[in-house]
Amino acid sequence: MNKPDGKGIKALSALGLVVTTVIWGSAFVVMKNSVAVISPAYLLALRFTIASIAMVAVFWRRVRGIHQSDLICGGLLGVFLFISYFFQTYGLKYTTASKNAFITTLYVILVPFLHWFFNKKKPSVNNMAAALIAVFGLALISLEGDLSVNIGDLLTLICGFFFAFHIVFIDRYTADHDPVSLTVIQMAVAALLSWAVALPLEGILDFGVMDQSILAGLLYLGIFSTMLCYLFQNVGQKHLSPNTSSIILSFESVFGLLFSVLFLGEPVTPKLIAGCILMFASVILSEYKRKTG
What we know:
There is one protein chain. The protein has helices at 6-35, 40-58, 60-64, 68-91, 97-104, 107-119, 125-142, 151-174, 179-202, 212-236, 242-249, 252-264, 270-287. With 293 residues, the chain is mainly α. The protein has one domain (39-203, 210-287).
Protein backbone atom coordinates (compact mmCIF):
# COMPACT_ATOMS: atom_id res chain seq x y z
CA MET A 1 0.00 0.00 0.00
CA ASN A 2 1.43 3.38 -1.05
CA LYS A 3 1.91 6.06 1.57
CA PRO A 4 0.17 9.38 0.86
CA ASP A 5 2.38 12.05 -0.71
CA GLY A 6 2.87 15.54 0.66
CA LYS A 7 -0.40 16.84 -0.77
CA GLY A 8 -2.23 13.75 0.49
CA ILE A 9 -0.87 14.20 4.01
CA LYS A 10 -1.86 17.88 3.95
CA ALA A 11 -5.36 16.96 2.81
CA LEU A 12 -5.71 14.36 5.59
CA SER A 13 -4.39 16.86 8.14
CA ALA A 14 -6.88 19.49 6.99
CA LEU A 15 -9.66 16.90 7.15
CA GLY A 16 -8.67 16.09 10.73
CA LEU A 17 -8.93 19.76 11.68
CA VAL A 18 -12.31 20.06 9.95
CA VAL A 19 -13.57 17.04 11.94
CA THR A 20 -12.27 18.80 15.05
CA THR A 21 -14.33 21.91 14.32
CA VAL A 22 -17.44 19.80 13.62
CA ILE A 23 -17.11 18.15 17.04
CA TRP A 24 -16.41 21.47 18.78
CA GLY A 25 -19.43 23.00 17.07
CA SER A 26 -21.66 20.15 18.22
CA ALA A 27 -20.23 20.32 21.76
CA PHE A 28 -21.68 23.81 22.31
CA VAL A 29 -25.06 22.43 23.41
CA VAL A 30 -23.38 19.86 25.66
CA MET A 31 -21.24 22.56 27.29
CA LYS A 32 -24.26 24.80 27.78
CA ASN A 33 -26.22 22.02 29.53
CA SER A 34 -23.23 20.91 31.62
CA VAL A 35 -22.14 24.34 32.85
CA ALA A 36 -25.69 24.91 34.11
CA VAL A 37 -25.10 22.07 36.60
CA ILE A 38 -21.31 21.97 37.16
CA SER A 39 -19.26 25.11 37.86
CA PRO A 40 -16.76 26.10 35.12
CA ALA A 41 -13.45 25.13 36.77
CA TYR A 42 -14.78 21.72 37.83
CA LEU A 43 -16.22 21.17 34.36
CA LEU A 44 -12.77 21.82 32.88
CA ALA A 45 -11.12 19.59 35.51
CA LEU A 46 -13.47 16.69 34.75
CA ARG A 47 -13.26 16.92 30.95
CA PHE A 48 -9.44 17.14 30.96
CA THR A 49 -9.17 14.33 33.50
CA ILE A 50 -11.37 12.05 31.39
CA ALA A 51 -9.29 12.93 28.32
CA SER A 52 -6.02 12.27 30.18
CA ILE A 53 -7.12 8.86 31.46
CA ALA A 54 -8.36 7.85 28.00
CA MET A 55 -5.14 9.02 26.34
CA VAL A 56 -2.95 7.09 28.78
CA ALA A 57 -5.09 3.95 28.35
CA VAL A 58 -4.94 4.07 24.54
CA PHE A 59 -1.33 5.24 24.12
CA TRP A 60 0.35 3.58 27.11
CA ARG A 61 3.43 2.60 25.11
CA ARG A 62 3.93 6.18 23.94
CA VAL A 63 3.57 7.40 27.52
CA ARG A 64 6.36 5.08 28.68
CA GLY A 65 8.68 6.63 26.09
CA ILE A 66 8.09 10.25 27.11
CA HIS A 67 11.30 12.24 27.67
CA GLN A 68 12.04 15.29 29.79
CA SER A 69 11.97 17.59 26.76
CA ASP A 70 8.50 16.23 25.90
CA LEU A 71 7.35 17.08 29.43
CA ILE A 72 8.62 20.65 29.16
CA CYS A 73 7.08 21.34 25.73
CA GLY A 74 3.82 19.48 26.40
CA GLY A 75 3.59 21.13 29.81
CA LEU A 76 3.77 24.62 28.28
CA LEU A 77 1.07 23.67 25.76
CA GLY A 78 -1.05 22.46 28.68
CA VAL A 79 -0.63 25.81 30.45
CA PHE A 80 -1.71 27.69 27.31
CA LEU A 81 -4.68 25.35 26.89
CA PHE A 82 -5.83 25.71 30.50
CA ILE A 83 -5.56 29.52 30.51
CA SER A 84 -7.48 29.72 27.21
CA TYR A 85 -10.39 27.61 28.42
CA PHE A 86 -10.40 29.22 31.87
CA PHE A 87 -10.81 32.76 30.54
CA GLN A 88 -13.21 31.67 27.81
CA THR A 89 -15.49 29.90 30.29
CA TYR A 90 -15.53 32.76 32.80
CA GLY A 91 -15.83 35.33 30.02
CA LEU A 92 -19.00 33.60 28.89
CA LYS A 93 -20.56 34.38 32.27
CA TYR A 94 -20.39 38.13 31.58
CA THR A 95 -20.91 38.43 27.81
CA THR A 96 -23.10 36.92 25.13
CA ALA A 97 -22.31 33.58 23.51
CA SER A 98 -22.06 35.24 20.07
CA LYS A 99 -19.49 37.82 21.23
CA ASN A 100 -17.62 35.14 23.18
CA ALA A 101 -17.34 33.00 20.04
CA PHE A 102 -16.26 35.91 17.84
CA ILE A 103 -13.64 37.38 20.21
CA THR A 104 -12.16 33.92 20.87
CA THR A 105 -11.69 33.25 17.17
CA LEU A 106 -9.85 36.54 16.66
CA TYR A 107 -6.78 34.33 17.10
CA VAL A 108 -6.89 33.96 13.30
CA ILE A 109 -5.47 37.50 13.01
CA LEU A 110 -2.98 37.03 15.86
CA VAL A 111 -1.45 33.73 14.74
CA PRO A 112 0.44 35.00 11.64
CA PHE A 113 2.19 37.69 13.70
CA LEU A 114 3.02 35.39 16.61
CA HIS A 115 4.24 32.73 14.15
CA TRP A 116 6.49 35.38 12.59
CA PHE A 117 7.81 36.53 15.97
CA PHE A 118 8.45 33.15 17.61
CA ASN A 119 9.12 30.86 14.63
CA LYS A 120 10.75 33.44 12.31
CA LYS A 121 8.37 32.60 9.45
CA LYS A 122 7.03 35.73 7.80
CA PRO A 123 3.37 35.41 6.74
CA SER A 124 2.60 35.74 3.05
CA VAL A 125 0.25 38.37 1.63
CA ASN A 126 -2.25 35.53 1.12
CA ASN A 127 -2.06 34.56 4.80
CA MET A 128 -2.75 38.10 5.98
CA ALA A 129 -5.55 38.68 3.47
CA ALA A 130 -7.12 35.33 4.41
CA ALA A 131 -6.99 36.22 8.11
CA LEU A 132 -8.75 39.54 7.50
CA ILE A 133 -11.42 37.89 5.35
CA ALA A 134 -11.94 35.28 8.09
CA VAL A 135 -12.45 38.00 10.71
CA PHE A 136 -15.14 39.66 8.56
CA GLY A 137 -16.78 36.27 8.00
CA LEU A 138 -16.74 35.48 11.71
CA ALA A 139 -18.23 38.91 12.48
CA LEU A 140 -21.14 38.27 10.12
CA ILE A 141 -21.73 34.83 11.65
CA SER A 142 -21.29 35.70 15.33
CA LEU A 143 -21.99 39.35 16.11
CA GLU A 144 -25.42 40.82 16.68
CA GLY A 145 -27.01 43.41 18.91
CA ASP A 146 -24.98 45.33 21.51
CA LEU A 147 -21.30 45.69 20.53
CA SER A 148 -20.16 47.56 23.67
CA VAL A 149 -17.17 46.16 25.57
CA ASN A 150 -17.56 44.65 29.06
CA ILE A 151 -15.42 42.57 31.45
CA GLY A 152 -16.55 39.35 29.80
CA ASP A 153 -15.26 40.59 26.45
CA LEU A 154 -11.86 41.43 27.97
CA LEU A 155 -11.61 38.01 29.61
CA THR A 156 -12.48 36.38 26.29
CA LEU A 157 -9.82 38.46 24.52
CA ILE A 158 -7.20 37.02 26.90
CA CYS A 159 -8.53 33.59 25.96
CA GLY A 160 -8.05 34.36 22.25
CA PHE A 161 -4.45 35.44 22.82
CA PHE A 162 -3.58 32.18 24.57
CA PHE A 163 -5.34 30.08 21.94
CA ALA A 164 -3.09 31.85 19.41
CA PHE A 165 -0.01 31.00 21.50
CA HIS A 166 -1.24 27.40 21.73
CA ILE A 167 -1.55 27.09 17.93
CA VAL A 168 1.85 28.69 17.23
CA PHE A 169 3.73 26.58 19.78
CA ILE A 170 2.09 23.37 18.59
CA ASP A 171 3.68 24.12 15.21
CA ARG A 172 7.01 24.76 16.91
CA TYR A 173 7.06 21.64 19.06
CA THR A 174 5.53 19.04 16.73
CA ALA A 175 8.49 19.54 14.38
CA ASP A 176 10.75 17.66 16.84
CA HIS A 177 8.36 15.91 19.26
CA ASP A 178 5.77 13.18 18.96
CA PRO A 179 2.33 14.85 18.64
CA VAL A 180 0.65 12.05 20.59
CA SER A 181 3.03 12.43 23.55
CA LEU A 182 2.50 16.20 23.52
CA THR A 183 -1.28 15.67 23.57
CA VAL A 184 -1.09 13.32 26.57
CA ILE A 185 1.06 15.74 28.55
CA GLN A 186 -0.99 18.86 27.81
CA MET A 187 -4.23 17.11 28.76
CA ALA A 188 -2.72 16.02 32.10
CA VAL A 189 -1.29 19.48 32.84
CA ALA A 190 -4.59 21.20 31.98
CA ALA A 191 -6.42 18.75 34.27
CA LEU A 192 -4.04 19.36 37.18
CA LEU A 193 -4.28 23.14 36.84
CA SER A 194 -8.09 22.97 36.66
CA TRP A 195 -8.30 20.92 39.87
CA ALA A 196 -5.82 23.30 41.54
CA VAL A 197 -8.01 26.37 40.95
CA ALA A 198 -11.43 24.69 41.28
CA LEU A 199 -11.51 24.25 45.07
CA PRO A 200 -10.38 27.78 46.10
CA LEU A 201 -12.59 29.43 43.46
CA GLU A 202 -15.72 27.29 43.58
CA GLY A 203 -15.68 25.29 46.82
CA ILE A 204 -16.38 21.57 47.07
CA LEU A 205 -18.08 19.92 44.10
CA ASP A 206 -21.39 18.20 44.84
CA PHE A 207 -21.12 15.00 42.80
CA GLY A 208 -24.75 14.23 43.63
CA VAL A 209 -25.94 16.74 41.00
CA MET A 210 -24.60 14.58 38.17
CA ASP A 211 -27.27 12.39 36.59
CA GLN A 212 -26.89 10.05 33.61
CA SER A 213 -27.30 12.81 31.01
CA ILE A 214 -24.63 14.95 32.67
CA LEU A 215 -22.24 11.97 32.89
CA ALA A 216 -22.87 11.17 29.22
CA GLY A 217 -22.18 14.81 28.37
CA LEU A 218 -18.91 14.75 30.33
CA LEU A 219 -17.80 11.60 28.51
CA TYR A 220 -18.58 13.26 25.17
CA LEU A 221 -16.63 16.38 26.15
CA GLY A 222 -13.71 14.39 27.52
CA ILE A 223 -13.36 11.70 24.83
CA PHE A 224 -14.50 13.45 21.66
CA SER A 225 -14.32 17.22 22.20
CA THR A 226 -11.02 17.08 24.12
CA MET A 227 -9.01 13.89 23.56
CA LEU A 228 -9.81 13.28 19.88
CA CYS A 229 -9.95 16.93 18.86
CA TYR A 230 -6.61 17.91 20.35
CA LEU A 231 -5.04 14.72 19.04
CA PHE A 232 -6.27 15.66 15.55
CA GLN A 233 -5.02 19.22 16.06
CA ASN A 234 -1.54 18.25 17.24
CA VAL A 235 -1.06 15.66 14.50
CA GLY A 236 -2.63 17.84 11.80
CA GLN A 237 -0.57 20.91 12.61
CA LYS A 238 2.60 18.92 12.03
CA HIS A 239 1.79 19.09 8.32
CA LEU A 240 -0.02 22.45 8.02
CA SER A 241 1.07 26.02 8.68
CA PRO A 242 -0.31 27.57 11.87
CA ASN A 243 -1.87 30.33 9.72
CA THR A 244 -3.94 27.82 7.75
CA SER A 245 -4.66 25.75 10.87
CA SER A 246 -6.02 28.76 12.77
CA ILE A 247 -8.44 29.62 9.96
CA ILE A 248 -9.68 26.03 9.67
CA LEU A 249 -10.10 25.76 13.45
CA SER A 250 -12.14 28.99 13.49
CA PHE A 251 -14.78 27.06 11.52
CA GLU A 252 -16.02 26.01 14.95
CA SER A 253 -18.26 29.08 14.68
CA VAL A 254 -19.59 27.94 11.29
CA PHE A 255 -20.46 24.46 12.52
CA GLY A 256 -21.82 25.85 15.78
CA LEU A 257 -24.18 27.93 13.67
CA LEU A 258 -25.09 24.90 11.52
CA PHE A 259 -25.99 22.80 14.55
CA SER A 260 -28.00 25.69 15.99
CA VAL A 261 -29.99 25.87 12.75
CA LEU A 262 -30.52 22.09 12.62
CA PHE A 263 -31.30 21.40 16.27
CA LEU A 264 -32.33 24.72 17.81
CA GLY A 265 -34.34 26.08 14.88
CA GLU A 266 -32.34 29.28 14.46
CA PRO A 267 -33.17 31.10 11.17
CA VAL A 268 -30.75 31.26 8.23
CA THR A 269 -30.24 34.86 7.08
CA PRO A 270 -28.34 36.38 4.12
CA LYS A 271 -25.81 37.76 6.65
CA LEU A 272 -25.04 34.25 7.93
CA ILE A 273 -24.73 32.84 4.42
CA ALA A 274 -22.35 35.66 3.45
CA GLY A 275 -20.26 34.97 6.56
CA CYS A 276 -19.94 31.28 5.70
CA ILE A 277 -18.92 32.10 2.12
CA LEU A 278 -16.19 34.45 3.38
CA MET A 279 -14.92 31.76 5.78
CA PHE A 280 -14.61 29.19 3.00
CA ALA A 281 -12.93 31.76 0.75
CA SER A 282 -10.37 32.55 3.48
CA VAL A 283 -9.25 28.91 3.71
CA ILE A 284 -8.84 28.61 -0.06
CA LEU A 285 -6.88 31.87 -0.21
CA SER A 286 -4.64 30.86 2.71
CA GLU A 287 -3.41 27.76 0.87
CA TYR A 288 -3.44 29.23 -2.66
CA LYS A 289 -0.05 29.43 -4.36
CA ARG A 290 0.44 30.95 -7.79
CA LYS A 291 2.13 28.67 -10.29
CA THR A 292 5.36 30.06 -11.69
CA GLY A 293 7.15 29.28 -14.90
